[in-house]
Automatic annotation (TrEMBL):
This is Aryl-alcohol dehydrogenase. Gene3D superfamilies: Medium-chain alcohol dehydrogenases, catalytic domain (3.90.180.10), NAD(P)-binding Rossmann-like Domain (3.40.50.720). Signal peptide: none annotated. Its cofactor is Zn(2+). One of its GO terms (molecular function) is zinc ion binding. The gene is xylB_1. Its EC number is 1.1.1.90. Residues 12-362 form the Enoyl reductase (ER) domain. It comes from Bacillus safensis. InterPro entries: ADH-like_C, ADH-like_N, ADH_Zn_CS, ER, GroES-like_sf, NAD(P)-bd_dom_sf. It comes from the Bacteria. Keywords: Metal-binding, Oxidoreductase, Zinc. It is an enzyme of class 1 (oxidoreductase).
Length: 370
């Protein structure tokens, strides 16, 4: 079928084109995309930090409605509302162990441009392959995806807000709920109050952390962090975060820190603010190297520094929980989101980069009504 998509070519970051999309195979689902979040990882593909073969259709925070399900598909049917998650193999050790975020095939399945059949369902009219991204490519009006990429959600919830649950918001909340798994009453610090950091903060509140400390360089974001549950805020332009955090935690330091910026100096601060045996989780994609002394900055305080992908989550387990939290007001994503038309994609990326919008969401189906 023909679809409209924003194509990333060698010449242009985004060009609206008509493409051909393959019908779903037996284990695949055709989804009409309603909306798609814009995530920092899309931008890291544009700047070459995490390359994807071009031409490509980016976008990996899609939400939509099932149009057709392949003959072997059992978890969704035509008309179901779905959030699209990342691609995972389902058969490696980590997938079988309940950690699809740690899928051993994560990079080829999500960044090579091809799916598990080593194919892409996207083509130009002159039969050139177009890379599929994260097994979905949600900057297009329809997507043909593997069944494991779709998570059924209830029909009452406004689908336009749910796409980011498939990546950024799952990464932030899953890192806290699954990976750090803090006990109630433990201290938590988030460095960076973008969509990932704030979803980690909301999850820390759900988990019962206290204190919850947010660190950033923008006062407006810190105010929002307070509204969402931060008990303390620190503008690291004006205060030394590690010293201030020690003060707040009676001289001991925090049990947990969550690093979302990718800035080496910030990562070091996220280690230095911890108490003995504390843990820092990082999810950031950054370009610059970090130099640190393994003995003094890590070992001597028995610290753990761990990288986390996609919140150590199985999307089918975490996303429905997040939707429940969204509906009962404990995960107020609407406070982070701003809607854009697909044609304004460049503006959406620009606003995300300059910090004026925390989570841009592109509307692909203008007719959709919640
Ligand atoms: C990505 C981050 C880089 C590794 C794969 C998963 N997460 C979200 O965009």
């Amino acid at each position: 079928m023909e679809i409209q998509a924003m194509v990333t070519t060698n010449e242009k970051d985004f060009e609206k084109q008509t493409l051909l999309l393959d019908d779903p195979k037996a284990d695949e689902v055709l989804v009409k995309i309603v909306a798609s979040g814009v995530c920092h990882t899309d931008a890291t593909v544009l700047d070459g930090t995490l390359p994807v073969p071009r031409p490509a259709v980016l976008g990996h925070e899609g939400s939509g409605i099932v149009v057709k399900a392949g003959s072997n598909v059992t978890t969704v049917q035509e008309g179901d509302h779905v959030v699209l998650g990342f691609a995972y193999c389902g058969h490696c050790h980590n997938c079988l162990d309940g950690n699809a975020g740690g899928c051993e095939n994560m990079m080829p399945l999500n960044f090579s441009g091809r799916n598990k059949h080593n194919e892409t369902p996207l083509h130009t009219h002159d039969h050139q392959d177009v890379s599929q991204f994260f097994g979905q490519s949600s900057f297009g009006t329809y997507a043909t995806v593997d069944e494991k990429n779709v998570v059924k959600v209830d029909k009452e919830t406004d689908l336009r807000y749910l796409g980011p649950f498939g990546c950024g918001l799952m990464t932030g909340s899953g890192t806290v709920l699954n990976s750090l798994a803090p006990a109630p009453g433990t201290s938590f610090v988030v460095f960076g109050t973008g969509a990932v950091g704030l979803s980690g903060l909301m999850a820390a509140k759900i988990a019962g952390c206290d204190p919850i400390i947010a660190v950033d360089i923008h006062d407006s974001r810190l105010e929002l962090a307070k509204e969402l549950g931060a008990t303390h805020i620190i503008n690291s332009k004006h205060e030394n975060p590690a010293e201030k955090i020690k003060e707040i935690t009676e001289g001991k330091g925090a049990h947990y820190s969550f690093e979302t910026t990718g800035v080496p100096e910030v990562t070091l601060a996220a280690l230095h603010c911890l108490r003995v045996k504390g843990t820092c989780a990082t999810v950031a994609v950054g370009k610059r190297d970090l130099t640190f002394n393994v003995t003094n900055d890590l070992m001597i305080n028995a610290l753990t520094l761990k990288g986390v992908i996609e919140g150590d989550a199985v999307p089918q387990l975490l996303i429905p929980k997040l939707v429940k939290f969204f509906k009962n007001g404990r995960f107020p994503v609407e406070k982070l989101a701003k809607f854009y038309e697909l044609e304004d994609i460049e503006q959406a990326f620009e606003d995300s980069k300059n910090g004026s919008t925390i989570k841009p969401i592109l509307i692909l189906d203008k007719e959709y009504r919640a």
